[in-house]
Design brief:
- By secondary structure, the chain is mostly helical.
- It has one domain.
- Helix content is about 55%, strand content about 5%.
- It contains four helices and four strands.
- The strands form two sheets. It has a two-stranded antiparallel sheet. A two-stranded antiparallel ribbon has the order 2-3.
- A hairpin with a 5-residue loop joins strand 2 and strand 3.
- The two termini are about 25 Å apart.
Length: about 140
């Protein structure tokens, strides 16, 4: 109980939700690339802007009341389960301006750009989370 009251403060819950979202997005991009040559396959998407807006709204809603659950809801793609975990459900990407001859809508270049962006976001969240836990570990040990 005590540990959760310490780790549920500050940016830690937002960083954990971000890592969960980026992990799901990386998995989705891998699925898209794996199905690149599957006729009729439509790419999946996860809206990062909607997630970031929902994350900001969750931080604002919680404020300094750390006992309040940290709930992130972003349309039909992102929701928080009863146990506090993030549930991510990719949606089908709309056909932008092009539908290829095999009825797919995937641009490999777009997927690789999304992969790089999501990978950097995941790495940044991991570094910040590691820093938070390192500071907590130092406080527990009594070292500065």
């Amino acid at each position: 109980m005590f540990l959760s009251t310490v780790t549920d403060r500050g940016a830690t819950p937002a960083l954990l939700k971000t890592m969960s979202f980026t992990e799901s997005r990386l998995r989705m991009i891998a699925e898209n690339v794996a199905n690149m040559e599957t006729p009729g396959y439509r790419t999946k998407q996860l809206d990062t802007h909607a997630f970031q807006s929902a994350l900001r709204a969750a931080l604002d809603a919680r404020g300094t009341n750390y006992g309040k659950p940290f709930v992130v809801e972003a349309g039909s793609e992102v929701a928080t389960n009863a146990d506090g975990t993030l549930r991510v459900t990719p949606s089908e990407a709309p056909v932008q301006n092009i539908l290829f001859h095999d009825r797919t809508n995937m641009s490999l270049e777009r997927q690789m750009a999304d992969l790089a962006e999501t990978g950097m976001t995941h790495e940044m969240a991991a570094i910040l989370l590691r820093s938070n836990f390192s500071a907590l570990q130092k406080a527990i040990r009594g070292t500065v």
